[in-house]
Structure formats: C-alpha cells, structure tokens
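Predict the 3D structure for this chain.
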Amino acid sequence: MWDPRQRVNVCCNRELAADRSRDEGELARRCAQLGRPVLILHGAQDPRPVWATDSLVQALPNAQRSVIKDAGHLPWLEQPQAVADEIRGFVARFEPGSQ
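Done. Predicted structure below.
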C-alpha cells in the first residue's frame, strides 16, 4: 500500500517510536480500566502475527478480536465487506433489546 510519491511523516514516526518506550505494565493497567467494548480487527495474512495482539486482548476487559480471512495489514481496504459485517455484528450486540 506504500505510495513512493508520498513523503514520510517524520514527526509522526518520531511520536510512534517514542510511544514504544512507555511502561507496558502501566499501559495494561490503563487498558484494564476501559469499560467500553472493543473490537480488534486483524487480517489473517497480516505480516504481524495474530498473537501480537494477545496482550491487548487480555488487557482490555471487554475486548473481542476478529480475524479477517483473506486480508493482510489493511483489512478494511482488502476485505471491506467482511470488516463492515464484523463491525455491524459487534455493534448490534449493544443495541437496545439485543440482550
């Protein structure tokens, strides 16, 4: 998906790199306080393995992970209908009268 005509946002990359230095234990504690439902989407062919999101799924008390078949790192572009279906199904669980 990289377009060589686009310039790299150096400031954004610097901020992302700095974010990696955060205390993972503190981040997990903060995630544990999030009471909102969370849907984590992951492409089955993403170069980052599914297990890379395990700690996030475990840290968030109301998290659900969905692996999107035939998608890589950008499942919303590669399999937009599957992503839309997953999101609709997830949101529908929280609509009034759904429980």
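Helices lie at 10-19, 24-32, 54-59, 75-78, 80-92.
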